[in-house]
Specification:
Four copies of one chain form a homotetramer. The first copy, chain A, is of the alpha/beta class. Chain A has eight helices and 13 strands. In chain A, β5, α3 and β6 form a beta-alpha-beta unit. Chains in contact: A-B, A-C, A-D, B-C, B-D, C-D.
Chain lengths: 283, 283, 283, 283
């Protein structure tokens, strides 16, 4: 049974819950999930409402007009989604297979609620993995010299395949500011440290050198500032003096997989609202 | 600024969020927190709404009448609370000091949002601890012979001090079924295992014998079935073959303290709804 | 550079560390890892010594004779292994793909330090997964009627492929007591609960019904008593009232994968010693 | 039954385990704990040996001479301790009570294996807490102007009370480089973040601003570089967008208490070896 999902954030003010709940109820919608949060320090209201469309009297086509009428006087920023319109993801990969295999096997198991029309890679190493799961694999090598052309190729493919969100599944290239600006909160990265500790390259080496007792992984939206975007999810694991850098790399892979897949899943389910370089996650 | 807190559970039906939100908004209340949950398997709706009373036009005295009008046609089970009416807790203790010290130092630090008018003990061991924090200490030894009289004494003290909730802070006695029945969801226990593993006595010994790699603690409402009541909170810690039973006991104390205090805090903040021997915790 | 690994357990007595360390040093071995543990309650000594064979003067063939001379007067139970003799694993599967994919992708990434000469299944569902990773797949359907013959077939295959350890990667059949007895501490299972809570079938349903706030997974050696064998590894994840049974199943898969793979890895590295239905894990 | 504890680190070389184990065994010592670690990247060997003195034939007075003979040819850095010589701790506090109460109640429960002859404070706020537990309380206000004299007073008290280790239990002052240099690996701090994330002041504010999904606490030895010393222990807890800064502060207190107490306990038990700005913890 399809549902509509409405995401809102706006200045906090009286009557917001009533306004949305009344709109849904008066038009025959039955609320399935209703989450709200007020950042009282910043005075911002966040909401995610999901309702059953079975007896809802407004058509999908007309719904935006009605929501606009609700939103404008309250200065709401909003987006509307339908549970049966599947998200389309592009996976960007490099040489590391673990996140790719993880996402593809979840996709195959029906865990992900999304389509994966293509994989884009800057190395050929993971072509066999893509082929095993029958996902088209596009090799676009990126060098300092060809970066603008390579990104143009990537963008053309994303457009052609109607991709909504890009998942950097251990794609070791830094995206240009143009892409970051054009795809706000639509590019999800996995960084192999507990940010803001150890940004940049070789975080497990840095963690080993610093002698931390816990390592982590962080999934975040990509912004123009490297490893500084809104954090969606993090997780950690204990380590001891016994672990070598190679052990950290190996153990970290398990973190990276699960943290990235949680972030992608919540994003796909429209449970993540980003604002002020942070996220509200109605998980 | 005081708030009103309304807890509801009822059969799921369309329009519940609207009904409550409209009631609050139309009478000048500004919603501060609004949490809802639908157990779709059981068809039960749960809600916790908290609103600012500053401009609310209905007096505290009249409010129950209005809520009854809202609740009855929808078969709502409800309770109403005010943030400035401080919860009154009685702590029941035996010989172990750690949970008692933990609760008293949190209370002193203002973390607990509750008053502690008295401590009831079946041993004298913790009297000095109580005295350090200036909480009246009542010694009521319990033996198989005097149990009914002892419980009558306890109940008289609870009534005299207008106690709302009893916290069994490692009180090693089993309450009689009469008390359990008379105080439903108002007696909070801490059990020193990850229930339902290792109910009953000496759980750390059992955990050691079984060779588990993780131990836990569980805070739950007390019911007539020993260690079977609705679970409010649990937490765990990793252990290895190196730990002796004594080590588990020591490490477990840290779990017990934090799990119990979280459960008490959520309970005091009216964030816990119990039903069907489970809890919804709007933490 | 190959190493020798010696595992010992015996009654605790003075001079054990010296005896082993001296034997290794006097014959030119350089200790790489040396772990010992004394269960002082039971009076049992456990040891894992790993030494570099580069300048070791005793040949692999003669080594057992020397170790026997060391072990017999001290009543040591021991086993000897070489790091370059790769462990041979058979994976038993049913219909659930997640543990199989996880083990195969780790194997492909070189994480597992073992060979996987075959997969044995009682359903055909995972044949494509096996084929993707080029591992021979043997379908042996098991019914109440054919169980003895099916197990005979399984055992013949294990012998033919010189399998040392069987991994039950969500194989939903219960092995007969004969196999359990014949393969002590050589069959590793993953159970989808935090044992001893929720043994047997449908543990996520039981966990949901009981309203636990944390779910877990347990990897253990298989014994004749169902879900009662020595625990190798466990891990857990927090859940809330929001999760349905299906959510628990999905989240639990991530636990099962990582717990099973850790157990298999430690077993393969000869880091697990089982005794008294418990394990010492020198991880 | 008293034990001797020998801590060693030295360049890795063949025969180290044998040398120590033989020395102990030949003189009648029975090893109770024996832990070793090789940092193979740096080529450093670490060892902690603990043995029963019941039948040990060398007196405590003579033992250092013998160990020196063992250590010098192998370039060992070593220290020798006896389990019945209780560690003497000074607690430095400011205004926050939680770590102080935690340490004092553990001390009272016999968990800490150490004496606490005095508390030194730069504010008078925690005098009542100290008095409740009958620990002498010394107020030494520290201002930019009087810092050298204040530190001289502190050092005089530490010497007078034969203090071995200083615990900064949320002492908000920065020690001078002189003290840091004079007390290497003998001053333990608790920092209220997951270092190296959020060093310096107000880490919970920084964590909230950055929108992390996990917060932490770190206990480390104090060095001249602020928050840069060898990490002994860390732990973390999940947070969500719901938590305000005040919530983080409150939840963080539970982390700080347990992380600091673990670090102090391991230190007191001589289980921590510091080198290269990292620690080996034989926990």
């Amino acid at each position: 049974m399809p549902t509509a999902i409405l995401l809102i954030h706006c200045p906090d003010q009286p009557g917001l819950v009533r306004a949305v709940a009344s709109f849904i109820a008066e038009n025959g919608g039955n609320i399935v999930h209703f989450d709200q949060h007020v950042d009282s320090q910043e005075g911002i209201f966040f909401m995610r409402a999901e309702w059953d469309l079975a007896n809802f009297v407004i058509s999908r086509e007309d719904l935006p007009v009605f929501i606009r009428a609700l939103a404008e006087p309250r200065r709401m920023t909003w987006s509307l989604h339908f549970s049966d319109e599947r998200h389309r993801l592009a996976l960007f990969v490099s040489k590391d297979a673990h996140c790719l295999y993880d996402l593809l096997s979840r996709h195959e198991a029906g865990e992900l609620d999304a389509d994966i029309p293509l994989i884009i890679a800057n190395h050929d190493a993971l072509r066999p993995a893509a082929e095993r799961f029958n996902i088209p694999f596009h090799l676009i090598p990126v060098t300092p010299e060809n970066k603008p052309q390579a990104e143009a190729q990537q963008l053309a493919l994303l457009e052609e395949h109607k991709v909504e969100t890009v998942v950097l599944a251990r794609y070791m290239q830094i995206l240009s500011n143009d892409i970051c600006a054009a795809w706000p909160n639509r590019v999800i990265n996995i960084h192999h440290s507990f940010l803001p500790a150890f940004p940049g390259a070789k975080p497990y080496h840095s963690a080993h050198r610093r002698g931390v007792k816990i390592i982590g992984a962080t999934s975040h939206y990509v912004t123009a500032e490297l490893d500084e975007g809104p954090i969606i999810e993090q997780d950690v694991i204990r380590v001891t003096h016994k672990q070598t850098v190679q052990d950290l790399v190996r153990q970290g892979r398990d973190l990276e997989k699960v943290v990235l897949s949680r972030a992608v899943r919540w994003h796909v389910q429209r449970k993540v609202l980003a604002y002020n370089n942070k996220t509200v996650v109605f998980a």
